[in-house]
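tool=predict chain=A
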Amino acid sequence: MPTTAMQAAPTPDPGTGQPPAGQPRPGERNALGAEPSAYLRQHARNPVHWQPFGDAAFAGAASRDVPVFLSIGYAACHWCHVMARESFEDQATADYLNNHFVAVKVDREERPDVDSVYMAATQAISGEGGWPMSVFLTPTGLAFHAGTYFPPRPLPGRPSFRQVLEAVHEAWTERRDAVEENARSLAQNMGQVQLAAAVDVSRPPDVLDAGLLTAAVRSLAGSEDPDDGGFGTAPKFPPSAVLEFLVRHAAVPSDTADEARDMAGRTLAAMARSALFDQLDGGFARYSVTRDWSVPHFEKMLYDSAQLLRVYVHWIRLGGTAGFPVAEAADIATRTAEWMLAALELPDGGLASSLDADSVVDGEHHEGASYLWTPDDLERVLGAEDAAAVASMMNVGARGTVSEFGSPLHPGRALDGDEARLWQEVRSRLQEARTRRPQPERDEKVVAGWNGLAVAALAEAAAVLDRPDLVAAAGRIAGYLEQVHWRPAPGKPAPDEPASGELARVSHGGAARGIGGLLEDYAFCADGFLALYSATGDPRWYRLAEALIRTACTRFVDGGRLADSAGESEQVVRAQGGKPGLDPFDNATPSGAAAFAGVLLGYSALSGSTDHRIMAGNILALVPPLATRAPRAAGWLLATAQAALAGPLEAAVVGPAGPERDALHRALLQSPSPGLAVAVGEAEADDGGKPADVPLLRQRPAGPGGAPLVYVCRGMVCDRPAGTVAESLERVSSARR
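tool=predict ok
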């Protein structure tokens, strides 16, 4: 392993050529200092001899005949910092770990394929999941013991980390046969689970039953928290994909449309008025540890704000409710978009992954310290009178709800007129004061899929919020993905064939490295490019989306079965019973399968491709067993099913660029109709020249004198063209029915 700047190589003994006694041998020192991942570099000074995940680490475990200790986390994770401080920075614990294990660190954001399979193993073994994740593996990669955070000293019901290490070492040395048999059995069981979740993309798809979506809404209603919003009890995560389904369902007349609208509105309003939303700067925290969203876990992830921005934009398109009106939602969407760009945009155009949950104050990590306020803090900035009013309005009491640093600002309700005016007056002063505090670290890793989510959200927000700067920002991010993450195949594609290549999952400092993109990366990026094409009419983005989709159809389909990855690690494949893995459930982001179904559906509407429409239908075969059994974990699949049942509808806006075409185009982009794909461009010339890049625009003439027209179609079969906004929207409504 390379020597790091923080740990110089020991000078060999001149007599033996070996390192001096007590010094680590080459390959057994901490090897994370040269890694680009911010999370791995956070552990580069640990006395633990961490190795990055890869064949070399597992080969080292095999040669030493010891297990692998696999620790998985991410840079913004508070409890990852805690376990590092308590255990991984402790010399005695590190010595035991180094002597009896090969220690491997994984950034789950760089390697979600590794995280996914070992998370499933951890949940099967321990009944819990989360980060930091602590997994013990055989040298072949099979899991045999696992947990999450382990404290430095025993707690009721939870052993200390040192006790766990000693117990695992004892089992490995004294009961090896039983350990390995259990590991093989777990892998086989996980393989059977993968077979049960398999999607066969080669068979004719089943017909979707609209009743399943009605049943899903009613099932969700049974787990809703109508008082505080969201689903279930604490901890509460933003149910972004479920909200997207509910908003789409509410846009289509049905017996449960109003119920879906009300549920979505209650949760969107509760989150917007809570501590989950940063009331000063905008953007959303990862989750709340309380049922009423009043105490967040303060890490701010790109994927949360990107998904929620899109949902709030779609809520605005839907028209809102009296309990959560459009104007309030527009404020939340605007501030979220602006926070994403101000806090996460990098100089070369990509968006960074996250802001840490912690801020370092006087050399110590403190969760949320940058975001917390006491009454005295407010008085120093605002003066006594305004401070007292703001403290009452924003739930800041004498006793901090999080720590001695205070409480997060949040009203927990809609502000009345006087309160709203006061808040507008003081917010900028509080923002300025907060900038003088220690700030959370930023993880500048660029993840392709998460940036794709942001491109889609910003492109759609631009039209609904009337913010051309947001579509320009989406273009910068998309350009970064094209230039840095997309590696075109050498040579020119054949005529009428899309380009091919490979998408890299992550980049650092403007350079891609690491594994190729996973199914979710291809799907999220292609979805973002299609949304950007619909917003701009620039065929460059349609062609790039097409290249990703065509590549993904080859890369992630083997023997007719869809998989989340292309088998980047043999250890991961072995750990799930040698079967290609496909997880149908949403996690922090939509499942790769659900996202891919959605992008296949949208692409088929623009291209007219029956094959891609059929493949989307194959993936939606996952809906029946999940719609009522696990709708909270299948939100994006349900949202895609709703789009499929409502469409896909196609709208081609043709004619010369100008105010008339822009008005038609903007009205369609603001339509709440799920499954509506919008193409815009010049009408094709009649002289037999080059056809339009997007098939939906082909053979669609403009009106008399070149007047712009809208063709609303279903399955490429079009109604008579419309020349006004009202006619166009009526055609969309009729086609959907």
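Confidence is low (pLDDT under 50) at residues 1-27. The longest strand covers residues 501-508.
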